[in-house]
């Protein structure tokens, strides 16, 4: 949510290359200055309202738009407690939403329910039972199929935001500001992919900051800042109360039913053939995070030099329980294996333990902005950051180590997660140039900088290791064997699933550069053209660090041609040199360390690149009309999901082959090739002294004057996606199934169909046989999903009631043309072949069930300002 708008005085985004005083993260830096009081009292009260009365229905809605009610309201006021000395400002905003979402869920069809074995039948209550008239994806050859059920599950959101700021001027040289902000909210969402499964989120954030400014002289200024922030987070999943799912027994004795994945992988929240069921795999998560921040910055002017230098320190505490699989996760490779009651893997953590992570982040920086002459300014800066690592207050940091590339059988336990802290010295040069070669109408700006990403969220992997947070995996587990007693000895055949991070992890680093030209084409027109580039390295990638070592064809263990078990168009064709292959050893190919299971470990081995052309044209016409158009042509490449190493909705969260990361180099999951935005703002020329109705007076003037219309048109290319398998044929043992299918050499035509019923043509791909030992040759993120285009329109009316009292009315229409902007399609192309489904083709491959934006919505608002 974006609350507290009335509490913001200044909002500034530092892009690309910025000064040495900013850091901790690469990419953009957002600077927000809160509103303060003045000698005169000012304030506002407002209400924004949305409901379904004037809304259009979503593309997937069956009938009219479902019920919807949103209220956003607030009040703010500020003024002087002691004139010219002490000022106060306060703000409160509230948000309430009751939204019946659009759901087009994939569920087991009626025939599947009839054919399920007895132990599985109770689990079928985790999905809505379809009616005979619902769309069915079964075929005569595969009668046990998937149905699609439409509904409108409820989402409720509550959020309350408040700010209090007090400023005091001690003297002409000293001032102090204190700001306290609190944001408390929660939501309960019955998930559209399966309305019988709900997510619950509660978040409370508090920030206290003190800023003291001292002016030593007209050329010497010091600003000291202290901040304390605390965030309390809770997330869990559960079967939706009041539905048959709420009565389903758990996989672990005494606990709610865990996560059920059918036709997907053992990752958390993976793509799957049918909607994820039960509780979220990341349930019962608690985080209490404290940050203590101190910074002192000194600015000095010496002739043509403006010098700034300072220090920044942040003490970090995170007390958390974020172990996954606390309720268990049962993963079934296909609908057929689910109906037979055999899970390809069952994950569970029988004893989650609270962890107490600690770290100290810091930086020293200095910068000189040198005005060489009236046309040229050069800035040179250096920032040195450091981190004390990732440390557990009770010496419970558990992490696995490696010897000759083989993972240890037991974790190393101590105070620090790392064997080596490589973040003690992180120098970051910053360079900037501003040059006006042809006078003030043309400015050329260039920048270069190095930025590090100080790691403060490693618990998502560090909290998954034995002995304090052991996660076990049981292969080929029978549903009839549930429930498992978490207090009893671990069942035979269960193996530990390590998490953790690279024990000598490097800090992710980004090198960024830019070149920009600003040109004033006329007194009211400015054109900006900019090139932005960056290279990232040491980025975090999820890897299974316990895979068997593959051979590289044409090694002796590798077949010369693809075996006869492959689809006909590949069988008997030559295996290309350089292909990675893992021979099958019955009953399962041994891992590098056979005493433990596959891992999900973050390694700092990722690389990325970004190149963009950015164009910005701004034109202010006469009589209150202004137009701005922005366009970006860009390309982002990487070899892993560097924005979110846990999961992504359009690609697997792990490397497909850790021994060949180059095979995963492709478009980044966040790549959007073309993005364009046009914004128009027009103060209508009506009323006294304007072009139209200039002679009206009194109440007529109040009616016709003060109208403003604005319009924002946004168009964007789609995000890339990766076709996936619900099983892993490579014999590497990774149950998260990051291996991809093969391209069909006989396929002709376009892979992308552009139809929401089937966005891509699954005939373009072939399924490698189970245990074939090959990885597939479809590239990562090689296909593009649906784009986005939307037009938002608003009308604003300002009415002055008296000198210091103004009433503002606002009407806004979002997605005016009601365009359906579709989400990523279902990416599971193949499940393991069966006797009735010999190709393994998933009936829901390429199907889209949701939109990325709402249908047309109308919002009204009233705001009283004084």
What does this structure look like?
This protein has 866 residues and is an all-beta fold. The chain contains four helices and 49 strands. It has a 22-stranded antiparallel beta barrel. A six-stranded mixed beta sheet has the order 14-13-17-18-28-29. It has a three-stranded antiparallel beta sheet with strand order 6-8-7. The model has no long low-confidence stretch (mean pLDDT 94).
Low-confidence stretches: none
Mean of all residue-level pLDDT scores: 94
Radius of gyration: 30 Å
Pairing-aware structural class of the strands and helices?
Answer: mainly beta
The biggest sheet amounts to:
22 strands, antiparallel, barrel
Distance between the termini: 26 Å
- How helical, in percent, are the residues? under 10%
- By DSSP (H or I, 4+ residues per run), the number of helices equals 4
Beta-strand percent range: over 45%
Rough outline: globular
Number of strands: 49
Give a quick precis of the structure.
This protein has 866 residues and is mostly beta strands. The protein is built from four helices and 49 strands. The chain is 3% helix and 47% strand.
Record keyword descriptors for this entry:
22-stranded antiparallel β-barrel; 866 residues; 3% helix; 49 strands
């Amino acid at each position: 949510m974006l609350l507290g708008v009335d509490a913001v005085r200044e909002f500034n985004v530092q892009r690309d290359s910025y000064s040495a005083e900013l850091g901790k993260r690469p990419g953009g830096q957002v600077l927000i200055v809160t509103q303060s009081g003045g000698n005169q009292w000012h304030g506002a009260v407002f209400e924004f309202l949305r409901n379904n009365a004037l809304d259009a229905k979503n593309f997937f809605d069956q009938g009219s738009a479902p019920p919807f009610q949103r209220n956003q309201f607030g009040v703010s006021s500020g003024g002087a407690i002691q004139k010219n000395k002490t000022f106060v400002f306060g703000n409160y905003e509230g948000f309430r939403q009751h939204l019946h979402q659009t759901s087009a869920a994939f569920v087991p069809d009626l025939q599947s329910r009839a054919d399920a074995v007895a132990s599985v039948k109770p689990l079928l209550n985790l999905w809505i039972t379809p009616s005979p008239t619902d769309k069915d994806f079964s075929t005569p050859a595969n009668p046990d199929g998937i149905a699609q059920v439409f509904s409108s599950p409820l989402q409720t959101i509550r959020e309350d935001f408040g700010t209090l700021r007090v400023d005091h001027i001690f003297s002409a040289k000293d001032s102090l500001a204190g700001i306290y902000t609190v944001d408390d909210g929660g939501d309960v969402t019955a998930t559209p992919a399966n309305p019988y499964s709900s997510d619950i989120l509660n978040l409370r954030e508090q920030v206290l900051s003190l800023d003291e400014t001292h002016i030593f002289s007209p050329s010497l200024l010091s600003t000291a800042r202290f901040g304390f922030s605390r965030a309390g987070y809770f997330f869990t999943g559960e079967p939706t109360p009041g539905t048959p799912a709420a009565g389903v027994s758990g996989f672990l004795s005494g606990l709610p039913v865990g996560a059920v994945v059918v036709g997907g992988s053992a990752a958390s929240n993976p793509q799957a053939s049918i909607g994820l069921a039960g509780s979220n795999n990341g349930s019962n998560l608690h985080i209490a995070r404290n940050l203590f921040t101190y910074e002192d910055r000194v600015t000095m002017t010496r002739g043509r030099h403006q010098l700034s230098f300072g220090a920044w320190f942040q003490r970090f505490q995170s007390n958390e329980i974020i172990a996954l699989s606390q309720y268990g996760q049962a993963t079934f490779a296909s609908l057929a294996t689910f109906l037979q009651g055999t899970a390809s893997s069952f994950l569970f953590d029988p004893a989650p333990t609270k962890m107490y992570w600690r770290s100290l982040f810091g930086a020293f920086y200095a910068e000189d902005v040198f005005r060489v002459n009236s046309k040229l300014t050069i800035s040179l800066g250096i920032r040195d950051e450091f981190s004390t690592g990732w440390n557990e207050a009770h010496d419970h940091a558990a992490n696995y180590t490696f010897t000759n590339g083989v993972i240890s059988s037991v974790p190393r336990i101590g105070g620090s997660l790392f064997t080596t802290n490589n973040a003690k010295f992180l120098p970051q040069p910053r360079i900037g140039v501003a040059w006006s070669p042809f006078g003030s109408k043309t400015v050329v700006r260039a920048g270069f900088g190095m930025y590090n990403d100080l790691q403060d969220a490693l618990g998502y992997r560090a909290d998954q290791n034995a002995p304090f947070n052991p996660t076990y995996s049981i292969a080929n587990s029978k549903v009839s064997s549930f429930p498992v007693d978490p207090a009893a000895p671990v069942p035979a055949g269960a193996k530990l699933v390590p998490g953790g991070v690279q024990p000598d992890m490097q800090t992710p680093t980004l090198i960024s550069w830019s070149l920009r030209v600003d040109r004033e084409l006329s007194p009211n027109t400015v054109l900006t053209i900019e090139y932005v580039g960056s290279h990232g390295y040491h980025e975090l990638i999820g890897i299974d660090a316990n895979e068997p070592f593959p051979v590289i064809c044409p090694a002796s263990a590798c077949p010369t041609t693809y075996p006869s078990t492959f689809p006909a168009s590949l069988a008997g064709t030559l295996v290309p040199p350089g292909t990675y292959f893992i021979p099958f050893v019955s009953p399962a190919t041994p891992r590098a360390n056979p005493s433990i299971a596959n891992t999900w470990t973050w390694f700092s081995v990722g690389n990325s690149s970004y190149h963009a052309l950015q164009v910005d044209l701004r034109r202010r016409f006469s009589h209150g009309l202004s137009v701005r158009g922005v366009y970006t042509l860009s390309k982002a490449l990487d070899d892993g999901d560097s924005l979110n190493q846990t999961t992504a909705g359009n690609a697997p969260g792990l490397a497909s082959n850790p021994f060949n990361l180059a095979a995963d180099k492709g478009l980044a999951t966040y790549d959007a090739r073309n993005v364009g935005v046009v914004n128009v703002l027009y103060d209508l020329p009506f009323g006294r002294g304007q072009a139209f109705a200039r002679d009206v007076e009194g109440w007529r003037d109040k009616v016709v004057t003060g109208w403003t219309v604005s319009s924002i048109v946004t168009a964007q290319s789609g995000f890339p996606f990766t076709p996936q398998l619900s099983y892993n044929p490579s014999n590497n043992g990774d149950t998260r199934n990051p291996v991809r299918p093969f391209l069909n050499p006989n396929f002709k035509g376009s892979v992308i169909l552009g139809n929401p019923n089937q966005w891509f043509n699954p005939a373009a791909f072939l399924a490698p046989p189970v245990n074939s030992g090959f990885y597939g040759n479809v590239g990562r993120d090689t296909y593009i999903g649906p784009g986005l285009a939307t037009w938002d329109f608003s009308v604003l009316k300002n009415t002055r009631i008296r000198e210091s009292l103004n009433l503002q009315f606002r009407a806004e229409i979002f997605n005016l043309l009601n365009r359906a902007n579709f989400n990523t399609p279902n990416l599971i192309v193949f499940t393991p072949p069966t006797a009735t489904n010999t190709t393994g083709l998933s009936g829901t491959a390429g199907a889209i069930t949701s939109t990325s934006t709402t249908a047309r919505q109308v919002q009204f608002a009233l705001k009283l300002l004084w």
